[in-house]
Amino acid sequence: MRRSNSSDSFEYTTGPSHRPSNRPEREKTYESIEPNYRDRPPRPSKPPSITTTNRSKTNHNVHSWSRTNNSAPPSNASSFSRPDHARAHDELPSRPSTLNIRSEISRIRAELRQLELEESKSPSEMAELTSLYELQLRKMIHEQVPEDSSIHEFIHPEDTIRPPSRPVKNRAPPPPEQAPSVSTRVSTSNPQNSTKPTPKVRSRQASNKPTSQEPSTQARQRKKIKNEIDDLPPATGKPWIDAAGIERMALEDDGEDWSHFKNFVMDDTPAPEASIPVPKVLYKPTNYIYQFLYIFYLISLLAYIYVRLTFTLDAPGLNRIYCVLVAILEISTCPSLIIQGMTMWKWTSRDEPSLSAFERPKFHTIRVMIPTYNEPLEVVAGTLHEVMHMDVPNGLHLHIYVLDDGKRANLEEYILGRRTKKYVFLHYIARPKLPGVPHHAKAGNINHTLRFIYDRAEAKGEAVVVFDADFMPRRNYLWRVLPVFSEKRDRPIGLVQTPQFFYNVNADEDVWDHLNVSFFHRIEPSLDQWSAVNCCGTNFTVRADALKSVGYFPVGCLTEDTLLSLRLCTEGWAVSYHHEVLAIGQSPHEITEIFKQRSRWCKGNLQIFLDDFPLTQAGLTMSQRIFYSSCGYNYFCAAISIPFFQLVPSWAIFFGLWPVSEIGLEFAFTFLVYYTLGNLLLLYPPPGFQIKDMWNGELASTNLWYTYFNGVRRIVGVKLTQGRGELTFKATKKKAEGDDDDDSGVGFQKEDVRACYMHFIMFFLMLITILYAIIKAIIARSVKFYYYYMYMIGMGWSLINIIPYFIVVIYCWYRTRIPGIMCAILRNVQLLLRGACAILLLIQAFTTRNLTETFICPHPYSATIGTDRLTMIRTLDDVTGKEIERNTFWLLGMKDDFYTIQQIKQSACEDSSVPVVVFYMAPRTGLVLDEQASHYMPPDRLPTWEEYDAKIEEYGEALSEVPIMLILEPSFLMHTFNSENEYHAADYQLSFTQRVDSIIRKFPKAWTYVDAGNALYLQWAVNMDHIVDVLQQMPVGLRGFAMNVGSFVNSTYNMQLASELHCQTGLNYVIDTSRNGGIFSDRSMDEINECTYDPPYISRGAIPGYGPGSKKAINRVDTDLKVDNDYDDYYGDYYYSEYYRKRRSTVPTRHRRQEYEYEEYGYDYYAQYDPAVLECLSNEIEKGHDANSWVKTPGEGDGRLFASGTYHECLLEHTIECDDTCPAYVPKINGEFAREKMCTCDPDELLDYSYDEDVNY
């Protein structure tokens, strides 16, 4: 139906109706609504002259019915009951109108019937009168029809009360070579335009020759009308003015070339596209392999979730939040695959229909809807041709409705020129579109016709079939689909969906998954057993009464087809799926059209999920609630999880954010099993298909995540701002056969790059990640620790993730396609990389490449302390992610010490080197510190001494067999082990001694040292005497002590103090030379003491290495051995004795590389008081030096300029002094350090100071 351009009318086009005589009920129905023409005034026997301004093309048995404000509908249009909302169009202001075809045909019908009833005309006179009417109608519609055509061939038989006494047989379709060209207008005034002979009508009336009694007046009138037709202007392709003053346009100006359709449009030759081979659906009675995989997948999923939540979330700081977020996303995506596995537990298959399937048919009328909106006429013509020539079972009437939402005159004229076979009726409908009234796109287009048909008519016994304008059905469509409605189920079947297939898609190049094998051949057949099939908008058949019960097609939703399935199920109908390709269509190839189509699918399913929420819909079974809810939920997951997981390797490599806190054997094994089974389920092909078809679907989902993300953003935004808003439906562009996809050749086009800009961004980001990982791995090639191997794993996953985006780049270059061989290579590479990365995790778990705590060195540790080199490692800073060089491994008593332990074990095993390990643990309770000493202490240290002891036990179990140099930090463990009212109490010192003894026993292969403080502390005699006293009480087995570099004092003075302690205790020592190589170390003690946190002008000191003392063994027989002292009475008065407050002096101008000298005091500095002499226990003072070590990390912050423990390269040789702007102790505000922005070292101001690596001190 369409609105006429010349008047306020709606035009219908319909073909002949052939109602069987054995259906009196149906005939009675039509007869009951037949307009009563007997009530009208009698018509004159001589037909009046006819004029018209509405040029329509008719051909034999197709007619244009029109309805004006003053005419009644024909009797066969009883189903076109006009709803109230459509009547509003009649009230629009009218324009000048003329007599239209519909009114004239009604008048002619009444005239012929009246003459026939009166029997006042002979058969020859009736034939002549009928021929005269035909000529008048030809003139009215300005078209040529064969002279021997009968008026009964284009007057609907149902428009008469009873058929004529001598019915005319249907005209047989002409042979292909006699079919007139559609694009050429045939005119009697131009015989040369018609090169084909006019086919003859096989009708009894047309074959009778005129009798000798032919009235001369009628013959003259007929000749006059023919002459008038001959005088009409020929078709010139340009506008011309007819006799009524109306501007006309010739048919050649339609702009479409129909010449290549002339061989099959008028006969039953199949369209070439409809004849291509389609996938043959193979049925399997059992699905045991998939069921086995699915069961084990569920078990592995539960195990993986348990391991993931138990062993991989205890990361420190922000990394823990990141680990938790990744775990949440992983678990949230699991329901998609679980639901898919449930649907595929059993595949539904049905046998071919038997010969008796139509003995008791469920339907007597099938109405085919072909909605179209600006598709090329060639596309619509192909679909219409195949629908018209479908095999119709006996007893069925087939009505075909071309629903033109674009109101194209050339499409209408083409349809008016088609012939149909018996019991097949063709209709053209163009609905009115009132300004300001929502049109609801495709759903509104179909609903407009359905309301005219069924609002005031019975829908029982009829079915509605919907084909998109680009889908051509197979000839046996009705024979295969209609028997499905007779199956016995718990609910009556209301809708049957069939698969989609595309003739312009190559399966090897289907990177956008147009064929959608996973959905149409795997998921949908499985959903059939649950009656939860999704309607896909085309190639489906629905019962008319079921459709009417849900109010026809839902409107306001972009995926009205899916919503229709849901509403049918809520009303108690079943939705079935016939797994057989019965229609072939055309898919879009332009990237913009692909994104538009998939965006519409995403938004529509999200609308259903948010607005209708199937989980709470009444009338649905639990399985239907789950399956219909999963449609929208899957789009949510894909839009968020896909880009997040693809960026995980980049975040890990660039920022050090790892998705798990540790990779143990439990995680590696469960992840391998879970990941492998999940991929097998996703790539498991249905019978008759291959893995590549499944991979195409996964590839398309990956490349469409940004489209889904925009859809989620739009729908959620509309939901939040408008509640239940309606979005605009945008039809997908289709190509005609003559359109060339490759007319512009290869190369990037601006519109393609603009549409895929996010894919290009992700591609280059992945590429940079891969290159960065390779460069870092090459730089760190001598390092065999955790981060090095994580570079390799991250690079592997980045290679997996970059392949989909690389395919999009290639697709944009080749313009609408990608070579199949290239796609196959990339597919195989990605699948191999998936398996390689998953297996690599498991291999590393067993070989400690992934540094698990189950590391077992394949051979005994062969490194010897004092002989084999000290370990030097390159690793990443946890905060900045920068690679730094370290000599020591710090165990801080925190949960992330796991990786450090693995590095210690692996370096000692594979490098045969000696790791230097620092235990830095200071419980928050049991220590009394002054404000300055605790200013930069980490707040997350161990809370109690009990936990301290537990940590020592844990470290001992992991490192008891590893040869290491172990330093116990910090120094105040020995001199502030106290309570609030006691200082240097003997019982606390005894407790410390006992803990040291426990540590020595737990690490029998280690050389253990205790921190003796730094030069700023030891310069006071009272502190020196206290440290000597504590060291002399240390248990047997303690190797010595360590001189801390916290004061940044030069090595000369550090060596002086260390040698004096060695003299008094007999213990060897290690000196920290990590940051005392700059000119800052040449300052006086007072100057150094004023800026002991992140001081300026510092650089690395002597490189780590052994000293002469490392060759000597320590044999202490008595732990109570000490220097005799006659001043025991003064022992408790350390703080008040001026003697013990005397400070040792240094020479500020002496260079750090000169040999050290003793200034004011010698070894026996008590001698000047002459009460007694303290003897030196060591006779080889120069051999007490075990090693130099970088106990601290050069460039590691102390807390003044940057957070304590973080690495910043500019901290070496910066120039920022400690002053009022950048004080040594940064003030805290609400517990947070308030550092000034200007107190940040500038790398441009760094001074280049070097040190002599060949000098050992």
Automatic annotation (TrEMBL):
Keyword Transmembrane helix attributed: yes
GO CC terms of this entry: membrane
Polar residues composition-biased segments: 1-16, 50-65, 180-197, 204-219
Keywords: Glycosyltransferase, Membrane, Transferase, Transmembrane, Transmembrane helix
Chain intervals for the UniProt region annotation (Disordered): 1-100, 152-238
Ranges where the Glycosyltransferase 2-like domain occurs: 464-671
One MF term in the entry's GO annotations: glycosyltransferase activity
GO biological process, one term: cellulose catabolic process
Compositionally biased region (Low complexity): 66-81
Main location: membrane
Membrane topology of this protein: Multi-pass membrane protein
TM helices/strands, residue ranges: 288-307, 319-339, 632-657, 663-684, 760-780, 786-813, 825-846
Subcellular location per the Swiss-Prot or TrEMBL entry: Membrane
Name of the featured protein: Cellulose synthase
Organism in which the protein naturally occurs: Oikopleura dioica (Tunicate)
Lineage: Eukaryota, Metazoa, Chordata, Tunicata, Appendicularia
